[in-house]
Please model this.
Amino acid sequence: MKQVLKTIPPTLCFLFSLCCLLLNYQNRCECTSLEQDRSWDKTMYGLSGGDIKTICPFQDPPGSLLVGTKEGKIFFSDNAGEQWQAAQLPLLPPGNVIEIIIPGFKKGEFFAGIRHEEGYGLIFRSEDAGRTWIVIETKPALPPIRALALVSTATPLLLAGTTTGLWASSDQGQNWQQSFVPASSPSVASLLVDPIEPQRVYLGTWRRAFRSDDGAKTFQPIWSGMVEDSHVFSFASSPNKNQTVYASTCGWVYRSNHYGEAWSIRKAGLSDRRIHAVATSSLDPKTLFAATPSGLFVSADEGNTWKKGSIMGMVINTLSVDPISGAVYLGLEGQGLMKSADNGLNFHPINQGLFSNSVQNIIAQGPTVFSVVSYGDNAGRIYYGPEHDPLQHFVALHNGFGKITSVQPLHQTEPAFLIGTYKGLFHVKNAVVTQRDPEHIIGPVRRIAIHPRQPELLFSTTGKGLFFSDDQGETWLERSPEQYHGECFDLIFDLLQPDTVYLASLIGVFKSDDLGLHWQYASFQLPKMKISVLIQDPHQPSTLLAMTPKGLYRSQDAAQTWESYICYDLPEHLSFVIYDPDRAGVLYANDLKNGGLYQTTNSGRTWTNLPAYKKLRFLDACFGSTTSANPQPVHPLFLGTFGSGLLRVGHYSNTSSSDNELFSGYNPAGQVVEESIPSLSTSGGFTPFLSPFIADRGEEFPELSTLQQNVAPG
Model:
């Protein structure tokens, strides 16, 4: 059973004190030997695709592309996107979203605008066509950046659209001045420089549109004909009529026939009114493309009427058209990139080498590992397979399920599992999905737990309480304690006596010795507040850890009494704490805010930040099973990362490999990947409505639309 502690404390502050900087020497030495013993693998493995935020095609050499992702990665391609490599980025705390990439002032120069999750902006610059990047030390520090543009004036300007207005730099991004703050909304979402008249600049905010005719010195409002509260996501100019301008907004597409002076709505045939991006074809000046959360729309008559394109049912974050070849590129949410070479008629995935997915949930049961890969808040994918090849199978889950919170494999001859989401509980078997609580009696699921000795017995902790099933989740009954205040967050079975369970609730810990029929309040000495998760020490089962908003608490007598478990050199922002099953007193934890993996070898008295992992942000962790073929079995450790896929640490033995072999990881084609990050490659990719199949095995799953048809109404 998975023993992971997950929470994200609400307060934001730095806990690194002098004792964190002065970690004692012998602990570092002991940590080094443990790293060697466990054979830490420093290679990252990703799942093809990712949340694409920006696409930048350029022509030197022809067919060159740069893309930026929501998870802070930049990739480059020299062959029109058929193969990708990861760019070398500056070493910074995680949380950077690559919002925009544009060409710079000279050949090979590019700028990237960054929005950090904690509310500030950064400028990256590359001088080698996007292969390597540095961060520019801007003066003053910039707010979060949403858009960039270059204006050719006597002194060329670099413009940055930010959450506090427009900023301008005349020295290639080093020194900045706030040049314009729109009165309707200070947040600038989009910028466009007229390709024919470079002194003309269009600016879109979260509410209105503006234009400058003097190189961004002054701006005038241009929203006549627009709905007042129109978030302007992007602009596009006609290739043969530069006075004709299009705007994509949160309410349809708008067209102006004279530089934005007056706008007219163009929505005929658009079934989705939220238009993330609009672009004109470079092959046919009358053809337009519109990217929406429900797919691609195409107009053949300058936006007067629209028809559904060949890509529907997929969230398209952005799109771009190569001005020379006419290739159309779509940036998808969670599913990478797609390309059309025939003016948008047909698309194919171009994800070979992209590895930008976030693995937010992992569970190992027996020899099988399940991992939940999130893309956006309302959808997800599940990979599962044997521990030596955990990406062997793949199931795509559409956005009708809501965000996936947990996955629980079921003991059946055919692959079957339950998934918990914000919208309830679902059952998956042979890629067919059915809803298990059609009357929504369970509500938002937080955790699903299966009895270690009686696999037909299940618990589900939810926002409506605790529920119990004795038929593998077919039917459910409530087993909440009295006065538990409505919400339950976690449940664990005692390692020695599985009929004893511990429950984490909104007001503390409850304990039951008869599978929840009777409960006792077991939170004395604990603050009466939310307990996010509980874990049990496999080496000393009477020891429990509980996470509260005020930090960790520990019980050494099976929840009879508790004490504060303050660790000054352990970060505040955690998403897991996990016991090592092979070594008593060894635990691992993560720093969700700044990135990194922490280890303790003395039951938590002191913690060491493992240097090889400071660049990574980890979301989840679990230990797999040992193998009898290994003379010295070691449980492999699986780590789910933000933006870099799945990482496996440890040894594995099978018939095709020698004992103690270090497995480097696997891409969706089942091939072992041993290269470093820049040369990491994957095979296959995503096709519309299809989960990616294992190309060298011929295994394929049903269309996503088939899965949707098998969901119970409601």
